[in-house]
Amino acid sequence: MNSRTDLAPAVESILAAARERADETSDRSPLSVDARPLSGAIRRAEADGRVPVIAEVKPTSPTAEGSREDDPVELAEAMVDGGATAISVLTEPTHFGGSPEALTRIRNAVDVPVLRKDFVLDESGLDVVEADLVLVIVRFVDDLEGLIEAAKRRGFQPLVEVHDPEELEVALDAGAEIIGVNNRDLARLEVDLETFELVAPEAPDDVTLIAESGVSTPADVRRMREAGADALLVGSAIMDHGEGETDVGENTRRLTRAGTQLDERENDDRSTEI
User: Fold this and answer.
1) What domains sit in the chain, N to C, each tagged with a CATH number?
2) Active site residue 161
3) Model's pTM, two decimal places?
4) Is residue 143's pLDDT more than 90?
5) Catalytic residue among 58, 61, 77, 88
6) Over the stretch 240-256, which tens digit does the pLDDT of each residue have?
7) 212 belongs to the catalytic site
8) Is 183 considered catalytic here?
9) Which one of 22, 37, 82, 269 is separated from 143 by 20 to 30 angstroms, measured CA to CA?
10) Are 136 and 160 spatial neighbours (Cβ–Cβ below 8 Å)?
């Protein structure tokens, strides 16, 4: 496994819980998944004039100020109605309030690709629940190439997460085709959108690049798209874990229209009204 020095205590706790859950899945039979392609979903979004956004069903997190108890299927359906290109579902139960069962229910209810967001450490961790994509974090995996190949054998599309140019090189050498750049520093849990701007220029053109974490406003969306993001993974800004919980569908719509003709048309209409 790659170096985990200086990880935030919350991340160490998440990894410890992931290792415990891995012991429970070691004897499961390999899954076989008929995945919905993310690439096609991204093309459809752009053809519709939408920014490709992977909206995340995340009941809570170590960095959230609260939690949401809404039915996860209703949240996912509202996100899709708001223009989400795909749905990310937390299946980590201890720190994020997620579950494999919620992912299955959501995948049965929506017609867009669904990402399983969890801390998969080895091949046995893949065989928990069917999804279209599965998250693989470079920093936490010993045999990255083997895990990517194992995911592909099952039909998953691996979304390989990196945080710096060195991890990007490791991911590319291991055969990653969909790469997420996490703007959150796992040592301090701080977010810096410059992380994506630093890593993106090093990626080849044939890789699908996803900006993860820290996207909160339409301006952030435009910034990440201008830096080369093919899609954006957005959780907290859509879920709104604070006391003033908002409509996740409207939150999604606000971001999927950022900088598009739909967004510009709405701004023009508001200017006319004024």
Assistant:
1) 9-273 (3.20.20.70)
2) yes
3) 0.89
4) yes
5) 58
6) 755 556 799 999 999 99
7) yes
8) no
9) 37
10) yes
